[in-house]
Amino acid sequence: MNTISDISGELRRQLKRSGRTGQSVREAAGLSRQTFVNVMGGESDFKLSTLLAVADRLGLELLLLPKGAARGLTGDAAAPVVETLVDAARQRAAGEAPAPREP
Asked: Would you list the DSSP string of 61-102?
């Protein structure tokens, strides 16, 4: 996540998954209606303490990672270099020669 909009989008998705109402989360976080609307809308900048309060009430934690480590969490990681047993079996079943193994 790189933008306020990305963060707000994740908060909205978690709110929906949680089955809670925005009002119940807002009240538990001690936020005004307008502040909560701003946070969830993703259009306005908000304080870190506000983000932490909303995330906590939604069962989320803020985690900071080096950029390289974050790629692996978002599904952007490259395909494994090592052929799996399933891949090899599929190739044999299709009559294809398995890929050569590297030493």
From this structure: ------HHHHHHHTT-SPPPSSPPHHHHHHHHHTTPPPPPPP
Q: Which 3 state secondary structure label does DSSP give 58?
A: coil
- CA 97 to chain CA centroid, Å, is 39
Task: Answer for the pair 90, 97: CB distance below 8 angstroms, yes or no.
Answer: no
Question: What residue segments make up the domains of the chain, in order of their start?
Answer: 4-57
Cα gap 17→45, rounded to integer Å: 24
- Return the amino acid letter for 4: I
Q: What is the pTM of this model?
A: 0.66
Q: What does the pLDDT look like over 66-84, one tens digit per residue? A: 888 877 666 555 556 677 7
